[in-house]
Amino acid sequence: MLYPPQYRQNTEAAVESVTLILLNAERPTMWDEVSHWIDSHGEIANADLCKIAKVDTLSASRMLKAWVEQSVLVPLPDRGKRNMAYSKPTQPEELGLLSEGNDNNLDV
After folding, report:
1. Beta-carbon contacts of residue 49 (< 8 Å; ≥ 6 apart)
2. Domain span at 67
3. Domain count of the chain?
4. What does R_g of the chain's alpha carbons equal in angstroms?
């Protein structure tokens, strides 16, 4: 979950060397990056995710579909399949621990 290592070759020194840099910082998850993108831009499309995640269109589509199934993204209405964009749900679903008053009605 860390950033990838960075290699730097030093060929101009008296003795050639390679420097390896390992960052001891946790890399943000892809969802964190997408969530930040949506907060900044209002919506995300497949092409945006391809750029952010450096993945192909099919992989981006799978990721977006999974997030829709998890209810963290919703497709924007009035968009065609090729022009689909997604945003965060406006009102998160609240799952209460207690039932509503009419849930216990036995009058059918």
Report:
1. 34, 55, 60, 63, 64
2. 28-87
3. 1
4. 22
In a structure prediction context, what are the per-residue pLDDT tens digits for the chain, which is 108 residues long? 677 788 888 888 788 899 888 877 777 789 989 999 999 999 999 999 999 999 999 999 999 999 999 989 999 988 887 889 999 988 555 445 555 555 555 554
Contact 87, 38 (CB under 8 A): yes
What is the distance between the alpha carbons of residues 74 and 84, in angstroms, rounded to a whole number?
Answer: 10
Structural domain includes residue 97: no
Q: Compute the distance between CA of residue 76 and CA of residue 86 in angstroms, rounded to an integer.
A: 5
* Residue positions counted in the chain: 108
Which CATH number covers residue 65?
A: 1.10.10.10
* Predicted TM-score (pTM) of this structure: 0.61
Residue 46 lies in a domain: yes
Crossing angle of helices 46-53/57-69, nearest 10°? 110
Q: List the 74-75 sheet strands across, edge first.
A: 44-45, 85-87, 74-75
